[in-house]
Amino acid sequence: MFFFLALLPDTVIVGINAGVPVKKVVAQVGGKSYRIVVKNKWILVNGVKKRSFRLRNARLLEPVRGDYPGLLIFKPYKGGIRILNRVPLQEYIADVIASEMGDAPLESLKAQAVLARTFLMRWGKRHGSFHACDRDHCQRYEGRNRVKSIHRRAAKETRSMVLTYKGKPVEVLYHASCGGWVCEPKYVWRRGKRLPYFWTGEDEDCFEDDNPRYTWKVFVPLKSCPKVRRIPGSLRVFSMIVDGDTLYAYDIRRRFNLPSTVFAYWCTQTGVIFIGTGRGHGVGLCQRGAILKAKKGWNYKRILLFYYRGTTVKKVGR
Ligand SMILES: [Zn+2]
Ligand SMILES: [Zn+2]
After folding, report:
1. Ligand 2 centroid from CA 129, angstroms
2. CA–CA distances in Å: residue 171 to residues 22, 44, 87, 239
3. Do 216 and 141 belong together in one domain?
């Protein structure tokens, strides 16, 4: 367990703008504006040459807009300016769950907070010089734009909690809505890992949910009528034969721009009408399902253990 302590940082470094260097930054602190551009291996801050520059509790106007807690650090990097945000762990967790879920019941936010922390432990080293980028590649982070007291409370009430399986942090996967059917990674990605805590089957709360936000209709002009295969015992499609090609779930969504693979379809003279429900891949925690479960009184541990079978919520240092 001591191995974990070293891996959960008390300050998180976030790569803003996906960690990709930019040519120009515009920031503000208390009414004062800073225009930062790159010149050779230096940066110019309002015309003054510097090796690096820091701002505390600043607002960014370019390249992304938002209020950022902690320190913003600007450094020349690969011909541009790299923007990093140093933020205390608890603040980062609160901001991530606000960016990911917005307004939601406390226990569903707490479940997401545990996953956000678990993600840092499992993947916090893959970017090298920062812990996580601010995009879906890692976890969405928009500074404190959307954070409210309930998000801070969810972070606080799950302090130091991560989700583990046999003593190791789980693979963190989640999606907006499963449309009633969650599944294992092997049904989504061709080389999807076999991880014992993911399962395939019905998420009853979402199946019965008729919120129109999660139903959709997409028309795709196609010459032939596709054939699909569904996961046994599920309405979720995992492969499709179209114009002689076999597409796997992930590619089906990408090729036709479908929000999910839970759909029915009709072929017409000019193409195919897809009518579906759900958003996202269907693996791991379903945010919509977590919200519905919290509303009927489930606590965050019960929610997490529903989506991640046989796992344990564990307290680690900090
Ligand atoms: Zn990333
Ligand atoms: Zn669901």
Report:
1. 35
2. 31, 41, 24, 24
3. no
